Amino acid sequence: MAHGAEAGGYVAPVLGAALAAGAIYVMGWRELSRRMPQRFGPGRLAAFLGGLGAIVLAVASPLDALAGQLLQAHMTQHQLLMMVAPPLLWLGAPIAPMLCGLPRRMRHAAAAGLAAPTVRKIAHAIAHPGIGWVSFAIMFWVWHTPRLYELALSSDAWHHVEHACFFATAMLFWRPVVLAWPARSPWPRWTMIPYLLLADLQNTALSAILTFSDRVIYPAYAPAPRIGTISALQDQAVAGVIMWLSGAAVFLVTAVWLVMDALVHADKRAPQARAGDQRLASTP
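RESULT FIELD:
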């Protein structure tokens, strides 16, 4: 399989990229936290570094070697890349700190590149919530089909492609949900609740297939060396439960958070609306 010693060559690049991104973010965050302490508090820093940590844990830790023996370990990798790292990175509101943390010349070049009309059009198109949801769903199902899943297990290169697809589409998916400053969404905020619940529905469907199937769906795991006495079918069922519970927890907790946030904003707007009505009523 592509995991373990054969795939270990990318551990150093992943660690190096994570350390570089973390250093750039920290430098930018320190500057912005002085200018805008309410917008860039310690929580932003912790969230972004936590997201980088989730990526490292998924693809540059002993978990990657274990994924060659156990489907449940491989599924944990996928959940870290799709459900944990992306929302944490967006909660760090990374755009401004990453730009601010770059050396001045690089910062101006990056800002100019992002402001280019073609780049802005492409970014606007792929940032649409519909694109995010559909691409996330397609990659979720396509890469869990036995043929492509087995391909990723047998090929180091395709294994990287699989993880990149999961992470990239998850970043698109979570962007309109977190809506990190200064992002805007063309959809009303309340639409993110069905957006999340529909995603949880498809997650539940695949989880149930893995959990309750009476045959091994991914044959490459059947002859794999096992830890303890767990069978391939039991391993598959545990992987399904991990996907089920972790996915449901993230989707549903986030949906509840959005509901509570909407209620809080409604409570804040109510006194303003009443004050406006009183001013209109008192106008001669």
